[in-house]
Amino acid sequence: MGCVSSDPTPADDSPFRSERTERDEAPQFVLPLVARIERAAPPARTDALETAARAVLSILGDERSLGDGEWAQAMRDWQDARIRKVVRRARGAEWRRAEALPGITVTGKSAEVRVFPPVPLDGWPKDLARLQVSGTDLEDPEPPVDADLSAPVLWLNPDLGMSAGKTMAQAGHGAQLAWWELSDEERAAWRDSGFALTVRTADPARWRELTASGLPLVRDAGFTEIAPGSCTVVADHPALRS
């Protein structure tokens, strides 16, 4: 299904577009996210998606990421280049080693996701670099309830089949685009709510409406799984609705 709205960032400076831009000339960084996936008790898929999105928002709004904070320079360098996020999985001792590294753990109903300050694309800490990207296939034991439209909703493209890890990264992209569009007061209110949000797959008719609405829209650069330029997520934040 086509994408019919424009990027929320200027067309020549989108961090997600597939064509080469000035962002590609900057040193490239990646935001690592690690999902805890124990064999005996994996998280529900939708909860993992929502927890990953809240993890991205948590590090964006953390005082260590702002001003002269200890993560601020890395966050600026990352946001000046391509906005890359990679989700890896951990269990047992792997998870405990990941938790020992500087970062933020966000907990959902069944999911735990730890987000770390950006690292160079080829400079992952060894305890994160050894973690697997594959194996994040998750399921919902029951269909998710309808989204609460009074809160932010990250709508997924119904025509794309992505792994849970890839979708977690895409939900994080959508949350980040919404964050960039908000005022300081709106960001503070979202933070005070615990970054309340839901992630849902849109039905085809709603997806067509959403992509024409002017809301922030993620077009993936196509590094993994899907074609470059694919529209993956619309960030439907109440404060951004026209």
Note down, in words, how this protein is organized.
The structure is a single chain. By secondary structure, the chain is α+β, with helices and mostly antiparallel strands. It has one domain: 3-Layer(aba) Sandwich (Bit1), CATH 3.40.1490.10. It is built from seven helices and nine strands. Strands 1, 2, 3, 4 and 5 form a five-stranded mixed beta sheet that branches. β3 and β4 form a beta hairpin. The protein starts with 28 loop residues before the first strand and ends in a 6-residue tail after the last strand. About 4% of the residues have low confidence.
Q: Topology, please?
A:
Blueprint: E1 29-36, H1 45-61, H2 72-80, E2 84-90, H3 93-99, E3 104-107, E4 112-115, E5 119-120, H4 126-129, E6 153-156, H5 164-181, H6 184-192, E7 198-201, H7 204-211, E8 217-219, E9 231-236
Parallel strand pairs: 1-2, 6-7
Antiparallel strand pairs: 1-4, 1-5, 3-4, 6-9, 8-9
Helix pairs in contact: 1-5
GO molecular function: hydrolase activity
Enzyme class: hydrolase
InterPro entries: Pep_tRNA_hydro_II_dom_sf, PTH2
Summarize the structure.
Residues 1-27 are annotated as: Disordered. This protein has 242 residues and is an alpha+beta fold.
